[in-house]
Amino acid sequence: MTAVTVLVGSVYGGALQTARELSKQFRAQGHCIRVVEEPELEDLTANRDPVLICTSTTGQGEVPPGLLPLYLGLRDQMPMQEGRPFGIIVLGDSSYGDTYCGAGDLMEEALLEVAAVKVGETLRIDALEVTEPETVAILWFEAWLHQLP
Ligand SMILES: Cc1cc2nc3c(=O)[nH]c(=O)nc-3n(C[C@H](O)[C@H](O)[C@H](O)COP(=O)(O)O)c2cc1C
Question: What does the alpha-carbon distance between residue 133 and residue 16 come to, in Å, rounded to a whole number?
Fold first, then answer.
C-alpha cells in the first residue's frame, strides 16, 4: 500500500477528472490516494508522502488559477522538501507550440528548487491526440508507483 498526495490544477475539468479516475482505480487496489483540488502550500507540506501534480496548462504555458496559490507559495516561501518524491501529469495541447504543457515545466522547476526529487518522466497528454486522458494516466501511474523509492 502506498500513500500519494495528488495536487490538481484544472480549468475545464479534464485534469480533475483524470485525478479522480486515477484515485478511484488505485484506492480499489488498496492504495491511499488523497486528491486535493485547488491546493494550498500546506496541502504539500502537511506530510512527506510522494506527490503527484496533475494539472492542465492555461494562458500561455501557465499554471491554472487553482494551482497558483501552491505554485506561488513554493516560489515565495521555498519550503524545503529534501528527497520528497514527485511526479507530473500535465494536460496540454500541442497546437500551442512553445508553451505546450508549460504548466508541468513550471511545477517541476518549483519542486526541484525546494530539493524534491523527480520520479519518472513527465506524462504529457496532448488534447489533440488523446480523448480519454484518464486511461493514459492510469497506465502511467501504475509504472510510476513502481519507480517510487
Ligand atoms: C485559454 C486556453 C489556453 C491554453 N493554453 C495552453 C498552453 O499554453 N499550452 C498548452 O499546452 N495547452 C494549453 N491549453 C490547452 C489545455 O491545457 C488543454 O485543453 C487541457 O486538456 C485542458 O485541461 P482542463 O480541462 O483540466 O483545464 C489552453 C486551453 C485554453 C482553453
Answer: 10
Is the CB of 93 inside a 6 Å radius of any atom of ligand 1? yes
17, 93, 126: which to mutate for ligand 1, most atoms within 8 A of CB? 93
* Cβ atoms of 88 and 123 closer than 8 Å: yes
Kindly report the CA angle at 87 between 83 and 91, in degrees rounded to 5? 155
For residue 61 and ligand 1, the question of a CB distance below 6 A is answered with yes
pTM reported for the whole predicted model: 0.98
* Ligand 1 pocket, residue 12 CB under 6 Å: yes
Q: What atom of ligand 1 comes closest to residue 17's alpha carbon?
A: 26
Instruction: Quick: pLDDT tens for 60-104.
Output: 999 999 999 999 999 999 999 999 999 999 999 999 999 999 999
Give all domains of the chain, ordered by start, each with its CATH number: 3-95+108-144 (3.40.50.360)
Q: Is 118 left (phi over 0), alpha (psi -120 to 50) or beta?
A: beta
CA atoms within 13 A on the CB side of 67: 26
Ligand 1: which residue has its CA nearest to atom 9?
100
The span from the CA of 105 to the CA of 31, in Å, is 27
